[in-house]
Amino acid sequence: MPMGDWQFWLVTAIAVLAAALVARAALPPRFLPRFLRRRKGTRAPLTVGGKPVGGERR
Amino acid sequence: MSTQADAAAGTGVAPVPGPRRVALVGNPNTGKTTLFNRLCGLRHKTSNFPGTTQEARIGAVRGGAGPEVHLVDLPGVYSIELELPESEVCRRVLAGQLAAPGEAPGEPDAVCVVLDATNLPRNLVLAGEVLRRRLPTVVAVNMIDLARRRGLSPDAVVLARELGCPVVLVSARTGEGLERPGELLDLATIPTHTPPGTQDGVEAWAERIALAALSQPTPHAPGRRPLSDRMDALLLHPVSGTLVFALVMAGLFAAVFKVATYPMDWIDAIFTHAGGLVHAVLPEGLLGELVSEGVVAGVGATVVFLPQICLLFFLISMLEDTGYLARAAMAMDRVLRPFGLPGHAFVPLLSSHACALPGIMAARGVPDRRDRLATILVAPFMTCSARLPVYVLVTGVLFPRSPLLASAAFVGAYALGIVAGLASALIARRTVLRGPARPMVMELPSYKVPSLRTSLLTTWDRGFMFLKKAGTNILAICVVLWWLGAFPHVDPPARAVELREQAAALVASPDPSGPDPVALRAEADRLESAHAKARSLIGRMGRAVSPVFEPLGCDWRLTVGVLASFAAREVFVSTMAVLVVGEEDFEEEGVLRAITSATRDDGHTPVFTTATAASILVFFVLAMQCLPTLVVTARETGHSKWALLQFGWMSAVAYALALVVFQGLRAAGVS
Questions:
Q1: What ipTM score was computed for the predicted complex, to two decimals?
Q2: Positions of E strands within chain A
Q3: How far is the alpha carbon of B433 from chain A, nearest alpha carbon, in Å?
Q4: Number of structural domains chain A divides into
Q5: Which residues of A fall within a CB distance of 8 Å from B101?
Q6: Fold of B2-213
């Protein structure tokens, strides 16, 4: 490995980032470290006039 | 927009100020997407609703009196009360429980219900369900031009009075009633009536309102059936329907092959020049090699297929818009039934031709559990768009001088996937999923002149998604593969050193009868590059696994390509580009030609021989090479054993048939 070449360290850093992207896209979240997991989508409880409503079919 | 004024007047309620966020709801095939495109044009983005595989399109509508409106195109549904994924998305969006990405959660400020003017009784059932939610609502009665041609004239004032909200007669295809698009959504008001709460009640209510709003249709000439009935008789006939389907599909793929060739050549040339430009601009070293050999060559090898993907989706969108695809589904029902699949399976299987993920999700609509499992298990056999780059590359290798034969091979690959899926379904339904099938019931949409605008916008969407994938995941895979192929650095082989010394000696003292020093250096370069790649990390991995794929005709490069494609199938072409570029001079001949003319380590045997290309094609048609599909299969079936069965069965079938093809061709004397 060309350890003395600064370009080697740069391309290696880019490759590590790319590998993390690939893992994030291909693996289920439970196999990934926390910092690589995608954020979950927005969900909010149903309210009418600011009050929660129960019994809504899902 | 006189119709709007009439309708608003009919309710006796003045329009409220323009809403900020409007949900677009309607039955399938009501021209909802055409209306969305008419209102938003290119000002929209496509993604999935969070936590679902249902597509969310959000567009910006301008031109109304109030502030800008964000229009959310919800999936087409017959009812929002059903336990189907698309119904659930509609229900939750209307309840404020689910918001499209980038949108704040909360109930929409208004709802626009799209009705098919030619089929009001059924469409009004959904309108009744939405009106019960008591959200500001406007009803757009679409396809009014088509209804008039059929002698139907829905009365907007009567409809508005009965529904208790503004009603507008529009034609999204021609733009009638939509001269000032923003005004339509500004009309939404809270309904003054509440439809019945029971299913029977709302159906009777819809029937009554439709009767009140519709004038009597113009009677057809006695003794002569309507044109749509005569067309249905042709397109749904067991023989002529199947024949027309085969002809349409063959014509579609022939057009894709022939027409897309020119823009593909242009894109290939652009990336070839980009590779040369990178060499000229960046300093010599690893960074320049990463950009030219990893990024430009790898991404270019995928992006070059953009014209074919765009053309395919454009033509499919046009076909769908005419109403033909639903007829094709009915015609294909007879084909599916003997294989133990219900007619309901056709829609998931058709969706799987774009991508297996929505196809598998669409299988939730198959009522019987065994039928649903069988549909899910065989859906990935259908040719998805990720396989297209591989098909194009390999059929081009098989028939380089005949686009007609290449397109026939392309259609054959599609057919092989379908046949393998049907055969697998039959085996599954007679073994692990034994049980009866249910009959198919499907509503056929009206025949229409397809909307060029809608097809172009669909094509833009699909093309953009493809480019996005090429610019993110495929780019990342290319960078990783390049790094694995570039290190560790090794000393050049003795033969290359010898050739360089020989070339240097010839330059120092020229010998007219001796070999050309330039050719000697080129050969030394090729040997050095092949030696370095073969001893790189990826070369070692490929060699370790290549005994498994050698019986299929694969060398270590093809083995690496096949293994890399388990992340995403289209990565195969990029992988081959990254592995081949450096050994072959792609700046002279283009990336694709460099791949197809690449040679193995011996320097003369092509990487893609005819037998190998055929074997690779069969393998890619049949193999399960998509991790996300396996994850979704496990989730939808509720158990990972079905995903494992799917992976094991498809891989075994793919390997066995590819082996038979390669060894059979070799035995027949085809190298």
A1: 0.73
A2: 47-48, 51-52
A3: 28
A4: 1
A5: 41-42
A6: Rossmann fold (3.40.50)
